[in-house]
């Protein structure tokens, strides 16, 4: 793996290893020290704001703090915090929101100047408020509660100062054919996103299986002999690094399908929207006449069960 490709994953690596710091301090410290000393990763050190001042990684902590320039304008700091608040990893989101809450408390005066002193809200603050409002409905309770606490720190804002979000048609184009290259790109990006948010190896296996099968079904590979090499090249490097081992992996579905009644929302098979949606997909996939689509969705089924966003991506195609 090229060191530079670890940049976008640096936060995820650190947040995953921190729980082992007390019991395996030497090993974790060695990894952390190696990573923060890599020049290619220096632009990403500011994403490690959550790393604590622990005796075993004191040098790492100091290096990270030096990379986080606290003398920048308040809105620049806020913009950076906003980037972390929307991180795909839920643990980083929680830490980012706690960090944001502290920032809002420490910078109360400049915050109020932005809220009250200007005729209109700065776009950064507008985006922050909208992100926090959406975060209040997050399925993770810690995320939802901390979003609400951050909104409390910001205080009351005139709704008239919040511009309506424009609807971007380019980002919402629905690919009607599951055999299209654009569907393959969108589906793989979604599965890689979900894979990167996993905290459990069993969940990672489920998304690994789905990615493996999609790469195989669409014949996507980095090889010059592959007719779909252009698709591979269209993915960012960090996505390619996730998918590369799955070009030769041998994951198989080992769980047999269980027959259930037609799922009714609110019943024991549909106690929540996500559970109902998954059971609905589980019921519909075997009924598909298109074997290519059925096989594709079958490999993604367990991923749909584990991640609500993945479910909402695939469910319209299943239906």
TrEMBL record:
<protein>
    <submittedName>
        <fullName>(California timema) hypothetical protein</fullName>
    </submittedName>
</protein>
<dbReference type="InterPro" id="IPR011989">
    <property type="entry name" value="ARM-like"/>
</dbReference>
<dbReference type="InterPro" id="IPR016024">
    <property type="entry name" value="ARM-type_fold"/>
</dbReference>
